[in-house]
């Protein structure tokens, strides 16, 4: 019998859906090959125990304030600069972006690291929240159940201003074919609505090295494929 590999995933626990992320990672322990330990991170010394970190959904300005008060802003920026694995979901995507629009006057304090521009509440306010299938070839042919709550939208992928949309007629199996020169690679998207065939598909998940970001909330579903994808990403790039 092969020895189980252990990995510790920290979940930032200052605000937002951190309990749900911890539960999803815990459920992966049925795997025969990896032992996943997930812990709440509220202080720098807890971050130091981790192999990777998740920044959950919530409210990005509240998360930024919580990071400042906990003395975690600069340790997390250093963590990202060092190439440590981070996954941001919804508000976490905003925190990882280099640029965010639609925030408070004076701008949104961000951690940065992902060379993308996102729009806060890009799909609308709380009343515009929705669920739909997300196409993510890395997870297989079965769509992922996307939960979008005041979700950010990818407005541009890099300084070259590649828009965060896909041609309507193109449903790529390999997103690298469409964006070969961008530092960030799209890994998932939602197609246009059936009654809006002229609209482009929207990119809703991206990866840049050891940084992963999703517009939606995988932790609010029972589908653990993205949590497993992140664990495998951590192990593959260790």
Overview of the molecule:
- With 238 residues, the chain is of the alpha/beta class.
- The protein has one domain: Class I glutamine amidotransferase (GATase) domain (Rossmann fold, 3-Layer(aba) Sandwich).
- 21% of the residues lie in helices and 29% in strands.
- It is built from 6 helices and 13 strands.
- Strands 1, 2, 3, 4, 10, 11, 12 and 13 form an 8-stranded mixed β-sheet that branches.
- Helix 1 (18-27) links the parallel strand 1 (5-12) and strand 2.
- The chain is globular, with a radius of gyration of 17 Å.
- The chain starts with a strand and ends with a helix.
Q: Give start-end ranges of low-pLDDT stretches.
A: 165-176
- The residue-averaged pLDDT reads 83
Q: Tell me the CATH topology.
A: Rossmann fold
The level 1 CATH classification is: Alpha Beta
Oligomer: single chain
Q: How many structural domains? A: 1
User: Superfamily at the CATH H level?
Assistant: Class I glutamine amidotransferase (GATase) domain
CATH architectural name: 3-Layer(aba) Sandwich
Shape, please?
globular
Along the chain, the helix and strand elements come as: EHEHEHHEHEEEEEEEEEH
The N- to C-terminal Cα distance equals 22 Å
- Strand proportion, as a percent range, falls in 25-35%
- Total helices: the number is 6
Residues in helix, %: 10-25%
Question: Which structural class do you get from the secondary structure elements?
Answer: alpha/beta
Radius of gyration: 17 Å
Largest sheet: 8 strands, mixed
| Count of β-strands | 13
